[in-house]
Each structure stands twice: as structure tokens, then as C-alpha cells.
Amino acid sequence: MKVLHLIDSGGLYGAEHMLLTLAQEQVKQGLKPTILSAGEPSETEKAIEIEARRIGLNVIVARMRPGLNVGEAKRILSWARSEGFDLLHSHGYKFNILLGVLPKRLRGTMPLATTLHGYVNAYFGSRMSLYEILDRQILRRLDGIVVVNERMRERLPKEVVRSSTCVHIPNGIASELPEVGVLPSDIRDFTQRHRIVFTAIGRLSQEKGLDQLIRVAAVRRNELESIGFVIIGEGPSRLSLEELTEQLGLKENFHFPGYLPNAGQLLPHFHALVMPSHTEGLPITILEALRAGVPMIASAVGGIPAVLDHVPSASLIRPGNLHDLGRELVNMASRRPGAIDVETGKALFHQHYTSRIMADRYCRLYDCMLSSKKGKVRSANEPVNSIQGRSE
């Protein structure tokens, strides 16, 4: 089975890591995945393209005019048909919209699936909010819709939610624990100056709630005086976050090393992971922390509560609640690492959130979509017997 994954990536974060991991597992299954990475004509090589090539995945670079570029979407469809792809898999609103608005006859026998990695709660009236509204409406025209957590269904049209084409497939990562990464010298120097160091990893944008983490550190200054915070990532909020630490006199307590590839491999160096987000899908970093046995403090948003609700090493907080966040930071800082039960979280990860489990579920969905195109009736909830090593 030849699968064309389509994405317009803004970095190498959760959605990109999920896609790369899925494609690697699909190769093991005997499928033939290709990643089409889109961008504007002026963009140079993207991080996802570099990483895909590094790990041996087939990647096609596509640069196109931004906006509703229907002509380019038609050309991509024509190329995909000529290359013999069996199925299209979109990762983001760009290709949901570009391919979803086209007449289905142009897709021929190629069904179109999408993974909804999460919405960002864009300000009403902004361009992003309009894209999100259009995205949710266009889902009716797709053949398979994947939500990475059940709570995402609440934001979708009822017609889509009730459809058998909408299924829940949690994200997954490799079951093998990677070698612990070496701390860059700037982070190593920072950690040596603090008794305990927390980390936050991800795109630095408003919905991640990192400004609230800084404000809590200021309010709880006396209790968190010897605590450091390493904020790993890049994004539109980086400058304002750095300025906020200076305004509140916390420049020595926060370090911003920027984007780091494979930041998840650095998790064991830190006391805990902090994720005070306002919105999330199912963050890959949460799964990496479970696998590595790293405690965490996270907002009860998106798919996070379903994963962490009964994990002793995790503390859930109400999104936007500074009191909750401050209390749990102080509590977590007072706990010795050896006294925290991390084995329960590790066991949960291996039972439900490995990349093998995720890929098996996607393969079942693909089979269902292709069978439907051929006029056969099959349930996406049928058990998978033996998908590993399978080839079509």
C-alpha cells in the first residue's frame, strides 16, 4: 500500500514527530509511505525534511503560493495518481482544505484521511480562526478523520462526530527508550547554578501558557528561589517571554536555549516536565516523559487527563489557574526523585501508547477506507490480527 502523507510544517514538534514515527512504523509493516512537505516558495529546507531524510524516509519537497491554491492542489492530486498512491493522509488544515474542497472525482479511488493534531484557539476574526472554521466544515468531505483524543470530538460538527469515519487513535512513540542526550554546554551551566531544574518543551506560542509559568515563579519567588526553568523551543512568543522574565526580575531563573532536535532525550536531566497549556491534542512530550519515567505537571486539557489521570508521577492542574500551578511546582520541588512512583506511568505507556500500537490502528483505518471505496463494508473497530510485516 502506497500512502502519501501531506504536511505544511512549522518546525519539528509534536505533529511532525508523530508523522515521522508513524511513517517509520509503516515501513516496518511493509507499507510504502512518502511525506510531501509543503511550504512557500521562499522557504529553505525544513526541519521535517532534514529529519525525514536522516532516518531514511522518502520525502517530496513542494513549494507553493500560500492561500487557497487550488491549482497546485490539483497538480498534487494528478501527480499522486500517476505515482500509484493508494491513499492520501493529511496532517493539518492546509491539505484538509486544499484537497477537501476539490470534487471527489478528482481523487479517483484514493481516499483522503486526516489526523487532527489539535486546534490552537485562535482569536476570533483572525486568519487562523477562519482557517479553523473552514477546516471543521470541510471534514464532512473526507473519508477518514482521526482525533488524537476523545475530547476533540466536542469541537467538531455533530454530523462528523456521529459518522463512522471519525475514529480515535492516540499518538504513539517508539517503545525503546533512547539513549539519554548530552546537555548542551549552556544548559549544563544553567543547571549547575540551580538546586532543581524544571523544563518545558514545545513551540513557544500563546496557547502553551508559558507566560503564566513565569508569573507564578514571580509570585512564589521565595519558595522557588533556587529553582531553574529551561524552556526549550522556538516560536512567536519567545521574545515576549524573555522580556517578561526580565521585567519580573527572573532572568537568572529562566533559560531559553531555543529549538533543540530530539529534546525529549534530554528529559531525564530534569526534575520534572511542566506543561501549563491552554489547549493540546495528545502531546508527544507527555508520552516521552512517561517512557523515560520523568514526573510532570500538566494542564487538564485535550487528551492529557485521559493519559495522566491515574499516573502517580503526574499532577494535573486546571488550565489558566495560577494557584494550582504554583502549588504543584512547590510540591514537586519538595519531592525526592526516588520517592516518586514512575513505574505505573511506564507500564501505561507500553500498554497503550507505543508507535507499533498506533501504526496498527492506522492500518486498520486505511483498510476500512479502501474497502469502502471498493464498495465493501468493514468496521474500523475490527481487531487487527497480524499487521506487522504486512504488504499490499
From TrEMBL:
<dbReference type="GO" id="GO:1901135">
    <property type="term" value="P:carbohydrate derivative metabolic process"/>
</dbReference>
<dbReference type="Pfam" id="PF13439">
    <property type="entry name" value="Glyco_transf_4"/>
</dbReference>
<feature type="domain" description="Glycosyltransferase subfamily 4-like N-terminal">
    <location>
        <begin position="14"/>
        <end position="174"/>
    </location>
</feature>
<feature type="domain" description="Glycosyl transferase family 1">
    <location>
        <begin position="195"/>
        <end position="327"/>
    </location>
</feature>
<dbReference type="InterPro" id="IPR001296">
    <property type="entry name" value="Glyco_trans_1"/>
</dbReference>
<protein>
    <submittedName>
        <fullName>Glycosyltransferase involved in cell wall biosynthesis</fullName>
    </submittedName>
</protein>
<dbReference type="Pfam" id="PF00534">
    <property type="entry name" value="Glycos_transf_1"/>
</dbReference>
<dbReference type="GO" id="GO:0016757">
    <property type="term" value="F:glycosyltransferase activity"/>
</dbReference>
<dbReference type="InterPro" id="IPR028098">
    <property type="entry name" value="Glyco_trans_4-like_N"/>
</dbReference>
